[in-house]
Amino acid sequence: MFAFRSIRSQGIKFPPIWKRKFSSPLNQAQISRICLNQSLYYKTRNYTTHHKKPIKDSIDTIEPNTKSKELLESNQIRSTPPAISTPKSRKDELLAKTNNFSQRLYIRLKWILKRSMRPFNVDDFSAFFSWLVMGNLILILLGTTTFASLIIYLMNTVFAQELVAQTLGNFITKNTGMTVIFESAIVPGWRDGKISFNKCFVSKRPKNGNKNKFEKGSQADAIAKAASKNEVEDQEPIDDGNYTQFDLTIDQVNISLSVSKFVNGRGILDEVEVNGMRGIVDRTHVHWDPDDDARNYKNIHKPGDFEIDNFKMNDVLFTLAQPNGFRPFNVSIYNCDLPVLRKNWLFYDFLNANNISGAYDDSLFTIHKRQRINDFNNLEKGPDSNDLGWKRVTRCRVDALNVDHLNTGLEGPFGWITSGDVDMIGDIMVPEDQQVNMTEIVSTIADSFAREARRAKILKPKKNEDDHEDDDSNDFSKYFIMDLQIKLNNVKAAVPIFTNDLSYVNNALIRPIVGYINSRKTYIPINCRIVKKLKDFDGSWTVYDSLLMDDMSIEVYDAFANYVANEEVRTLRMKRVGFWTLQVIFQALLMSLGAIA
Amino acid sequence: MIPPKKSITPNNILTKEVLLSQATSSWERFVIKSKWFLIKGYRPFNIDEISAFFSWFILSHILWIILGTTTFFSLLFYGLNSLFAKELVGKVMGKFITYLNPSFEIKFKDAVVPEWEDGMIDFKKVIIKTVDDSGLKLDLKLDHLKLTLSFNKWYNQKGIIDKVEIHGMTGIIDRSDYLEGDDGKNEIDWFNNEDYELSGLKIVDSFFKVLPKGFTSENNIKPLEFAIYSCEIPKIRIKWLLADFFNASSITGSVNDSLFAIHKRQHKYAYVSDIEDDLNPWKRITRIRLDPLDVDVLGLTSSQFNWIVDGKADITCDIMSPVEEDDGSLSSNYIVIDFKIQFNDLKAKYPIEEPMTSNGEKLISLKDLKPIISYVNNKRLESFEKMETNFELPSLNFRIVKKINELEKISTLSESNFLDLISNEIYIDWLKHVHEYEIEQRNKRIAQWSKSFASQLLVVGIGAMV
């Protein structure tokens, strides 16, 4: 305020532009002129006079650059006789003639579309039609999520919610073979461009043929039904249920859709986020024929298998019930972030996660991406010293896992262990780009072939396995290489009773190995490197059907065999040394006795 | 109030039309229209108007800086980058950031100028070192340092940095020279600006060694090796460092090769109709899980537990800290922590001195300590007799409550008196276990005695009969 005053006292005209308008007095002639214009203006627009605003108000709000222009226009219309030649005036003319709203709307619309009043011809109609179709197509292609959410939103508000929920639920149920239930129909909220479903219930259980229908209901009802379902099931087993069954409740699912993916046969889902999942995954009904192979149940890739680009999970906790009467235990995932999740590479994509942390039967596990070979030794050497030529990509780590998760139904040393726990660290690696250490990689792969040969003896080759393999053994990108460190803590082992099908295991070594395991009070470290063909992961769901478990068993056996061999050599040496010392002492004793005597 | 001389003349409205109709080129028309828009006349600008334009120009820039600090800076970098040599810009940038945070020296290893990625400024290969010798020494190398800046924050004295993302950090945090002052000086005093605040910290794939107080290469104090696989903390205030750390949304990593995880505690119930509200009054319970870790790393062999020689401890705790309500007030004034501690393979020996708290108070008398030690050793013997491979003590469960105000200006666990509180509770719970164990033992002995007594009686009885 002080600044204002001082400027004014210097005689500089300070009042800003906006002030002038109010401070300048309007003379009577001006007012009357404006009033006249105003009334004319309204008359030409066919307004009744009582619609117009109070005069004083209109004076206050006059802005010379906008309203006066209109006033001028209306002035011109009045003063100059309407010329038929200009289309603009024709429109105004038509507008003036009409007297109800719908007609005016019609005229304006036609004017926008055609700039005349003649009826539409075939050309026009086809143009409109193609424009509509194209516009929608573009909308679909560009923003599938927006499009779908718009449709869902419109349907949700316009039609009964029941119907929408039923249709959508039926759609998903039919396409996935799962029962899907949304509480309170669906509430797609736009959270960062995603469609979100709240309070879902997803279930896969054996169903009677006619029951294969989506049901809408509250989540609580669905849970109650799932809980009571088991008894009914036993009476009429129509579906044998020989698959993984589950009942899961999900607090929130956020998805985004993409048609370009759908067209390319990669499923319509683009990004998925799952929050707050609870429930049970029931594998108790799963059973195998004696000669069956886990590989027979691998996924066979077909177009439309989902390939999710950015998969996230938070706060997941489910009870896993394994077959063969294994105790049920909890699996929780605190958070999980996968860059890609493909149905056909499900297990492999989980192994290559950006970040997963959780607990498996109360043992913490993590999977995370990393950049360095060694965490701490590099602090001194500097992060650039890569002595091996390998780049570690992902580290999987499990701490203090009860060993029974690894050895139920398994042959080999793992299977002989009766109690204890296991720490595992697996580093999935790729060769360093710049300095490919050819010899090492080749020898690693050659090594793996020897084991492959041993494995081939136990696992009958799959029938339709193509024979032309190994011709690209130098293409490292086709191999999966993992460094595995296993630490067996406080383990105890027992000699297996049935040793008839001890596949790769040399019968003679069982007892020494079991003896070795039991002789260790603290822990047994095992380090090994597993080389696998990437093809093994094609369509695999679990650690078993990718044969990773078998590879691990072989490596563990080899490590044990080595240990035992070393141990035997060492005990022999110890015995000899011990005997020698005893001899020396005895001789000394004798000599001294002789001296006394 | 003198009305200004330049009032709207009656023919002003027409002037524009007239001028427009007289104009020939589109440029002229543009000039007329824009002049009309700006000053509603067609005359040269006067000083007032030019100064108004100028101030508007400046103001809009300031507004822009305030509203979109990150965008502004990244455009600035981009501009500088295209004008000057990269090395120079890198150096200047480092100097500038050092100026903003005077306690650090920040270098850019390859003098790579930051890039702009997902709305964040991305520095590659950064080296951070501390300048002054206040005890804390940092020597960190970062693969990526991503920042967003906020003028609004800086204006409110909360530091200019808004969000931070750190990828691939390695380094050493050296606290070995740090001496605890007797005047109760906290580590927070090391920071110049105690109001510093980050509205998001993300750390991915990072490893660092912490050299604890009094660490030298000779003595057997172990350095702490921290690995952080992923860490997300929604809000960090220097003043409330420890409290904000307890509120982390998720941290996973390892300490000395034992995994740990901080996450939202999971309830086992399905998310049916706001069940969360029914379960507990706390909006969020943070769970910390620490896999077996050597007791000396945990600081459990210090003065509070001078009788523990070796062993491992497995810790789970649930932290219930008050949440900020919508009106800014806290829902309660207390932080509640539930503990479950399981000791494994514990070795104990009689100490010379009594266990003390950090400020020299006696925790437990040697007389009371004696049964605890014999309990531990007896249990050890029992498990050895049973040929058990590992020896676990029953887990200790207790709860501690602390006023939230006491956590202000506290940045490490050792500064808070948590360890004293915890050790006090551990002793109480342990004495309970010992008591139960003794009763159990006595019952066993009585049973044994009565058995032998009965058999003797029988023998005597038979002898009398004969």
TrEMBL record, chain A:
Q: Which residues cross the membrane?
A: 125-155
Q: Name one Pfam family in it.
A: MDM31_MDM32
Q: Which InterPro entries has this protein been placed in? A: Mdm31/Mdm32
Predominant location category? mitochondrion
Q: Which UniProt keywords apply?
A: Membrane, Mitochondrion, Mitochondrion inner membrane, Transit peptide, Transmembrane, Transmembrane helix
Q: List GO BP terms, alphabetically.
A: mitochondrion inheritance; mitochondrion organization
Keyword Chaperone, does the record have it?
A: no
Q: How does it sit in the membrane?
A: Multi-pass membrane protein
Known function: Involved in the organization of the mitochondrial membranes and the global structure of the mitochondria. Also required for mitochondrial distribution and mobility as well as for the maintenance of mitochondrial DNA nucleoids structures.
According to UniProt, the name of this protein is Mitochondrial distribution and morphology protein 31
> Which organism is this protein's natural source?
Wickerhamomyces ciferrii (strain ATCC 14091 / BCRC 22168 / CBS 111 / JCM 3599 / NBRC 0793 / NRRL Y-1031 F-60-10) (Yeast)
UniProtKB/TrEMBL annotation, chain B:
**GO-annotated biological processes:** mitochondrion inheritance; mitochondrion organization
GO cellular component terms given for this protein:
mitochondrial inner membrane
> Where mainly found?
mitochondrion
**InterPro entries per the UniProt record, alphabetical:** Mdm31/Mdm32 (IPR012571)
Topology within the bilayer: Multi-pass membrane protein
Write out the transmembrane intervals. 53-78
Localization per Swiss-Prot or TrEMBL: Mitochondrion inner membrane
- Pfam families documented for this protein: MDM31_MDM32
Keywords carried by this UniProt record: Membrane, Mitochondrion, Mitochondrion inner membrane, Transit peptide, Transmembrane, Transmembrane helix
Protein task: Involved in the organization of the mitochondrial membranes and the global structure of the mitochondria. Also required for mitochondrial distribution and mobility as well as for the maintenance of mitochondrial DNA nucleoids structures.
Q: Which PANTHER family match?
A: MITOCHONDRIAL DISTRIBUTION AND MORPHOLOGY PROTEIN 31, MITOCHONDRIAL DISTRIBUTION AND MORPHOLOGY PROTEIN 32
Name the protein family: Belongs to the MDM31/MDM32 family.
The molecule here is called Mitochondrial distribution and morphology protein 32
Organism (species): Wickerhamomyces ciferrii (strain ATCC 14091 / BCRC 22168 / CBS 111 / JCM 3599 / NBRC 0793 / NRRL Y-1031 F-60-10) (Yeast)
